[in-house]
Design brief:
The protein is mainly α and 85 residues long. The protein has one domain. Helices cover 82% and strands 0% of the residues. Helix 1 crosses helix 4. The longest helix has 19 residues. The N and C termini lie far apart (31 Å).
């Protein structure tokens, strides 16, 4: 897969997820609120995204060529820029 194809696939996934789950900042705020209750300490939307990237990196450690996980890491990196404004 070329870089352009990869980034286009990532953009498609982000568009699909936004349609299904709403804006990333709103979704990550909702997850942060839930994780804050679960963990008993404040969690920020940016921390949620970083943890999701870590999850995907752990999976990639087992299979570095897993395309879906690679796309997800790129997508979460883009979301990190969005929720960190």
């Amino acid at each position: 897969m070329t870089t352009d194809t990869f980034l286009a696939a990532t953009a498609r996934v982000l568009t699909e997820r936004r349609a299904a789950y709403g804006p990333a900042d709103t979704a990550m705020e909702a997850i942060a609120a839930r994780w804050s209750v679960t963990l008993g300490r404040p969690i920020s939307p940016a921390q949620v995204v970083l943890c999701l990237i870590d999850l995907k990196l752990a999976r990639l450690a087992r299979n570095p060529a897993h395309e879906d996980s690679l796309v997800d890491v790129a997508g979460y990196a883009a979301l990190l820029a969005e929720v960190s404004r």
